[in-house]
Amino acid sequence: MRVLTVGNMYPPHSYGGYEAVWRAAVQHLRARGHEARVLTTDTRTETHEPDDPDVHRELRWHLHGGEFARLSAPARVRMARHNHAVLRRHLEDMRPDAVAWWSMGGLTMTLLEDVRRRGLPAVAFVHDDWLAYGPAVDPWLRALSGPRRGRAAALAEALAHVPARVDFAHAADYVFVSDFTRRRALGLGLGIPEERTRVAHSGISEDYLRAAPPQPWGWRLLYVGRLDPRKGVEDAVRATALLPEATLELIGGWDEREEQRLRALAAELGIEARVHFSGQRGRRDIAAAYERCDVTVFPVRWEEPWGLVPLEAMAVGRPVVATGRGGSAEYLRDGENCVLFAAGDPEALAAAVRRLADDEPLRARLREGGLATAPEHTERHLNEAVERALEAALERLRVR
Q: pTM for the whole thing?
């Protein structure tokens, strides 16, 4: 099976778990004897890790500094035409049996329509709400919105020679990272048939399944993830200020302005010496950070589609304090494998950490609960689901 995989960021030039599981799925397909090509944007990060084979960083998007830039009308057309030309070239060159869509937020969404019109089977692996926000931030589709959308789209297609609308209902099968994300997507009014959707939970690398021994409490807090206001990192910084003995390590990047804001906040609170910004790190460094911390905080304010960080920390044997919002509620259980607190409440976060510090039996119970939970959600489970979904889409085309 030849599979063209498409998305907005691909490791090592990426910032989150969505991209990491895409890479794991590609590696799985190749190990199973399939041909898998990666088509992604020209995004670059500070990493010096070389690219994997057959990774093509040719698509363009308008994300700069964590925000989508405003484009002029000619620039919108140029970007859409460029991305369609790149996709079409790879379709002609590779002749894939199927297309796999990954994180599509910020990309030209009409790429899905281009593939649909060619009659190619496609599967979209939806690990965030890009079906909701993707059309809104796509400059090409947004330019064609309004009461005269149909007439404008027809004219735009004729002039630009690329699709100007997307039939999401028939563009792909959809595999969602959580039932929460699936239900939100089905409520968008896109007409996606429920029978063409399924859930396959995202999973952690099995490299994390090496539990570190318990250690004496030392007030070492850890946050891993994007520096994004929705992630509640500010609440972790403010909670650290309420815990005089605590230190906080932040691993991750994404928005330089958010990092500067968090640094300024730490200075304002007088704790800049206790908040350490470690930047982007690879899997080995992240695993070591889990080992040396006393608790991993997952203070997300938004409805998290799933969340790999708590599972990684559990696999290493470290307790988790989290808000349990969105899809993460499907595996986080208060008092069993984590301690939950109210989102957006630094005092509640600090109280949860104090509770752990004062209760060694609770820490031991969470450790055991986490070590039981993590193996249920590994990359292998998702990778096998990805392969099955692609084969099912291909088989459905054969029997038509």
A: 0.89
